[in-house]
Structure formats: C-alpha cells, structure tokens
C-alpha cells in the first residue's frame, strides 16, 4: 500500500516506520525542513529504542521516504495519515490549528479517491470538521475520513506498534474500513470497526481510565500511610482479580507526559461543551496535581520543615523512564518549588538532562548519580529508571552528608533501607526514621 504520514512527531514517525517495516511504501511529511534532513539521513529525532535501526533499514530498502512537501507524495498515496500535534490551549481544549491547516492542504491537492485518517488524538467531531474543510477547499468529493487513534507508549513505542493490542477504525465507509483492516491485520487481529465519533471517544476514554487508575491508587497510598498499610501489597492483592489487573496500579508522584494530562483536560472540556459535568476525571486531575507535591511534604518532614540551605540530589527528570521527554514531568513542578524553599538542587537523568534545562529555570544538572549525591543532605527519586533500581546504598551512605532518601517511585524496600541505615520515606508505605 502507498501511504503518506503527515507529521513526524512521536505518533507519525513511529507509525510511518512500522508501516514501512510491514512492507508498505511510506512517505513521511513534515514542515520542519531540518527534521526532514536528519530523518532522510536515518537519524532518529526522538529517543526511542529500536527506532533508528528500523529507520535506517527501511530507508535503505527503499520503502521509507521523507519530504517537507506534501505535494510530492500526495497523488500516489492511497491512505493519508494525519499525525500532527494537538497541544492543549489554556482552557484545556485541544488546539486544532495544525489539523485544520493539513485539511486545507489536502483540499487543495485532492484529485483522486483518498482515505484520510486521523491518528492524532482529536476531540469528538473533528473527523466531520476535516471533511467539511476539505469539501470547502475542493469540488472533488470522492474521499473518506477515518478516525484511527494511536495507543503507543513512549519508551516502548516500536514494540507497542508492532504488537498493537487493538486497531480502532472509525468510519461509515465499508470501502475505507476494508482498506484499513488490511493495513492493520499484520499487526493485530483485534480490530474494532465503528463510527468516527465512537473511535475518537475510545481514545479519550482509554487514557482517562488509565489516569483514573493511577490517581485511584495514589489516593489509596495516601490513606495507607495514615492507617499503617502498604500500598504495594494492596495493589498486588487487588491486581490478582482479573477484572482489576496489576498494571497501572503503581503509586507514585502522579502521571505526566504528553498524553494523560492533555487528554484528561480535553475530555473534561469536550464534556463541558456537550453540557455534561465529568466529575470523576476532574477529580483525577486534582489528585494528580496534589500528588506531585507530596514528595516535598515528605522532604520537609525529614528536616523539621526547614529546607533552607539543604543540598538535594534529584534522580530522574523525565516523566517516565526510557525517554528524554520532559512534557508535564513532575520534576517541572517539584524542582522549582525546592529551589524556592532554599534548597541547592543537583539533578541527574540518564538522558533528559539537556531537555530538562530548557523547561526548568536555574536547573543544575550533573552527568552521573555519584556527582548528584556527593555531599547531599537528601536524595529524591522522581523517575523509575532501571539505573536507579540498583543503587548501592552502603557506598552512597559514605558520600552523602545525611542519609535521607525520599523515594517517589517506591523502588526500594523500607526494610532494606532500614538495614542500610537510611531515613527512608516512600509513597503509601511506612517511613523508616
Ligand atoms: C500513555 C498511554 O499509556 C498510551 O496508551 C497513550 O497512547 C499515550 O499515553 P505514555 O504517556 O507514553 O502513554 O506513558 P505511560 O507509560 O502510560 O505512563 C504515563 C504516566 O503515568 C507516567 O508519568 C508514569 O510514570 C505514570 N504511571 C504509570 C504511574 O504513575 N503509575 C502506573 O502504574 C503507571
């Protein structure tokens, strides 16, 4: 199949590369000329395991191309994927300016049957809007607009796409549904064909549900601390119930990233516009914001509420491991607050140091764990990187000024930390003093 993917962000680039890996001819389009130059040379523009290898392989085998001109690939493509950004506006609403711009360009170029597919997460009803814009730009009306939301996770984007758990195809056109089913069958047998509005809603409902699971377990964690229970065991016990499952029940400092915060607030906004007050998701958002600051309360508790002049080592800046993505990372709220309270912060992340400096003012980063903890009064763990799961606390104790660890991701057992002689405070478990 000949495919064109507009937008080479996370979703567009990964989808384009994976479609080509399955034997399709794919051209990825982006207005950013510099980005296209890099991609043409086989250089991945995002940090994602396995991406660069597949990129190079498919370019050299002639199935994957890049251009900054949509007109170069539009005519010969059967399916056009729209994967441009939909950043949140101040009021939480998704900003559709890039989607609308692409729809105008498509309207100007279209002269033969095309299947136009939205992969970007868009408010319910956007498919109809795209259809309307194309119709306004062109008298050629032989095209279908399909919603095909993407569920990949950063850090395992290639794996998630190559082994997708389901493909959602939202269209009233049986012709378009057939083509997209054929395109997705090499990836999964779980194919849901429905109307566009339902497909658009599936994406928001899925992300909001996962965010709800996280905020739910974080509230349970807060309660566990008050009644002497251990949230990790509670989650384990709950998870054996197949109806609940173990995933997304890891208590911590809350979710971040480019999807959950944006999609929950967009869902609240979609509901408001439809005249519905979506109470649960509003509370999920509030719980998530408060949870970020819990780690600061814990640090304050370790120092009798006086943090001025304290040297604090922060391990982890990215919103989750295996990515350099700082979008809506808890560190973005936590570190400025620590600095405001008078702490001297030295931070280390295996890959996100540079990106973090762009979004956290006055951030001092160091290239190793050791340099971060040298002389520190406290160590804060914000991201559950593998590297932070196997720290040698006997050696660490020798270089820190005070043996205080505040663990926002529950990476260690409180009993082990007690044996190592540390003050250890984590989420939803007993504090070792
Ligand atoms: C998410 C969805 O998982 C994916 O399907 C969708 O397409 C995009 O949004 P992503 O943002 O890449 O993917 O990350 P994910 O692994 O889902 O984690 C999101 C956030 O939740 C991270 O900040 C993570 O630390 C946090 N999280 C996750 C928890 O705090 N506890 C958990 O149990 C799971």
How would you characterize this protein structure?
This protein has 433 residues and is an alpha/beta fold. It folds into 2 domains: 2-194, Rossmann fold (3-Layer(aba) Sandwich), CATH 3.40.50.720; 230-433, NAD(P)-binding Rossmann-like Domain (Rossmann fold, 3-Layer(aba) Sandwich), CATH 3.40.50. Helix content is 44%, strand content 13%. The strands form 3 sheets. The protein has a 6-stranded parallel sheet, with helices on both faces. Strands 10-9-11-12-13 form a 5-stranded parallel sheet. Strands 7-8 form a two-stranded parallel ribbon. Helix 5 packs parallel to helix 6 (126-137) and helix 9 (196-227) packs parallel to helix 12 (279-302). The chain starts with a strand and ends in an 8-residue tail after the last strand. The mean pLDDT is 96. Bound molecules: uridine-5'-diphosphate-xylopyranose (UDX). Uridine-5'-diphosphate-xylopyranose (UDX) binds at residues 150-154, 207, 210, 214, 248-250, 252, 255-257, 259-260, 319-320. Uridine-5'-diphosphate-xylopyranose is lined by residues 150-154, 207, 210, 214, 248-250, 252, 255-257, 259-260, 319-320.
């Amino acid at each position: 199949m000949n495919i064109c993917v507009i937008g080479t962000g996370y979703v567009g680039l990964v989808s384009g590369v994976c479609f080509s890996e399955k034997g399709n001819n794919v051209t990825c389009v982006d207005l950013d000329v510099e980005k296209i130059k890099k991609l043409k040379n086989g250089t991945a523009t995002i940090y994602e395991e396995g991406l660069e290898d597949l990129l190079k392989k498919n370019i050299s085998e002639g199935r994957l191309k890049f251009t900054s001109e949509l007109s170069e690939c539009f005519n010969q493509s059967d399916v056009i994927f729209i994967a441009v950004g939909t950043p949140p506006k101040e009021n939480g609403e998704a900003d559709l300016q890039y989607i609308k711009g692409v729809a105008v360009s498509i309207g100007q170029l279209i002269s033969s049957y095309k299947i136009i597919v939205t992969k970007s997460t868009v408010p319910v009803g956007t498919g109809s809007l795209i259809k309307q814009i194309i119709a306004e730009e062109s008298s050629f009306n032989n095209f279908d607009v399909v919603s095909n939301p993407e569920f990949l996770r950063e850090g395992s984007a290639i794996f998630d796409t190559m082994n997708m758990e389901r493909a959602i195809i939202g269209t009233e056109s049986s012709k378009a549904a057939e083509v997209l089913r054929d395109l997705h069958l090499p990836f999964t047998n779980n194919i849901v064909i429905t109307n566009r509005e339902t497909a658009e809603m599936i994406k928001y409902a899925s992300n909001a549900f996962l965010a709800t699971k996280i905020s739910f377990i974080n509230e349970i964690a807060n309660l566990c601390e008050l009644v002497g229970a251990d949230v990790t065991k509670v989650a384990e016990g709950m998870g054996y119930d197949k109806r609940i499952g173990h995933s997304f029940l890891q208590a911590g400092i809350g979710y971040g990233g480019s999807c959950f915060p944006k999609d929950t607030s967009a869902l609240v906004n979609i509901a408001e516009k439809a005249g519905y007050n979506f109470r649960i998701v509003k509370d999920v958002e509030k719980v998530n914001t408060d949870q970020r600051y819990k780690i600061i309360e814990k640090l304050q508790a370790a120092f009798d509420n006086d943090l001025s002049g304290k040297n604090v080592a922060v391990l982890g800046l990215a919103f989750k491991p295996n990515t350099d993505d700082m979008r809506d990372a808890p560190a973005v709220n936590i570190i400025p607050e620590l600095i405001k309270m008078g702490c001297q912060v030295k931070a280390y992340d295996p890959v996100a140091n540079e990106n973090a400096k762009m979004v956290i003012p006055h951030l001092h980063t160091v290239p190793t764990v050791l340099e971060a903890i040298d002389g520190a009064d406290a160590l804060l763990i914000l991201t559950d990187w593998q590297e932070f799961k196997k720290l040698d606390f006997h050696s660490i104790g020798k270089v820190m000024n005070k043996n205080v660890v505040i663990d926002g991701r529950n990476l260690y057992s409180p009993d082990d930390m007690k044996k190592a002689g540390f003050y250890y405070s984590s989420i939803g478990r007993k504090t070792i003093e």
